[in-house]
Amino acid sequence: MINVLGDDVGSYYNNFPEMAWNLLNADDNKQKILSVAYIAHYSMKSNKDFDLRVQRTTDGDFHNQKVWGNYSEEQRKSYHETTNAISDHYLHDYWMSQTARAQDFSIFPQSRWENISQKRTAIQVSTVHEGSVEEDACRVLSGNICGKCQNHTALGPYPWWKVDLEAVCLVHEMRLFNRLDGVFDRVANFVLEGSLDDQEWFVMMRKNDGIIYGGADGHPYIWIDQSGIQARFLKITILGEEAYLHFDQIQFFGEKAS
After folding, report:
1. Please, are residues 116 and 169 in contact by the beta-carbon 8 Å criterion?
2. Is 5 contained in some domain?
3. How distant is the alpha carbon of residue 238 from its chain centre?
4. Which residue has the higher pLDDT, 64 or 114?
């Protein structure tokens, strides 16, 4: 293992970071390395990245990340000029080539319809997580299935979660991904409602059999209506006087209504 100067850096991570700094500071190695080449793998690709860096998290060891949000337009421009001399899209293109055929290896059946709920606006009755109820509710629409609960309401009567599809759609399918780290039965019974105006609601389906289901293990709860039901707003309510609502992911499939 060598650096761009040809030096052996096999011991770079021994007693990290003390050994690393010793190697970099010896004989002005840091400046010598920078004069040859370096990869800014934590660089900012665009102005949007400055804001994203702050939005991701500024907790704990990342408290200094807040400074990125204070960069002026001139500072951002200067940063781009010094750290983005070459655009290398290899990893981007490789990733896209892999995700394009990811469904071929999926443990979940492919839906006949388009995902109409991913990254839409959502809200829920309450949250026990940090942030707003809107932020917590939207986490289950990210598309990232992980096996743990990504939203979580407080304990209360008939907790609900609601999504705005942003247009009237024919809803054909719903998939609910339960958390896999325990308490599977908490979301076993629920009702799905739809609305055209967020005022008047109608029941689309009800599950009260108490049968638990999975999620990331390949066994989410799947409901299908072949004809499709027109709705813009969709609401899931857990049945119970003392209940929680929490999911890994929630997905709705369908098409825009004519």
Report:
1. yes
2. no
3. 23
4. 114
For the stretch 143-162, pLDDT in tens is 999 999 999 999 999 999 99
How many angstroms separate the CA atoms of 186 and 213, rounded?
11
pLDDT at 140 over 70: yes
- Residue 220 inside a domain? The answer is yes
**What range does the domain containing 181 cover?**
114-256
CA angle 20, 4, 94 (to 5 degrees): 100
- Return the number of other C-beta atoms located less than 10 Å from residue 207's C-beta: 17
pLDDT of residue 61: 64
- Burial group, residue 194, by CB count within 10 angstroms (0-12, 13-18, 19+): buried
Q: How many whole angstroms separate alpha carbon 78 and alpha carbon 213?
A: 53
> Is the CB of residue 141 less than 8 Å from the CB of residue 187?
no
For residue 226, give the CATH number of its domain: 2.60.120.260
Residue 199 tokens, joined: 């005022």
Under 8 Å between Cβ of 155 and 203: no
This prediction has a pTM of: 0.66
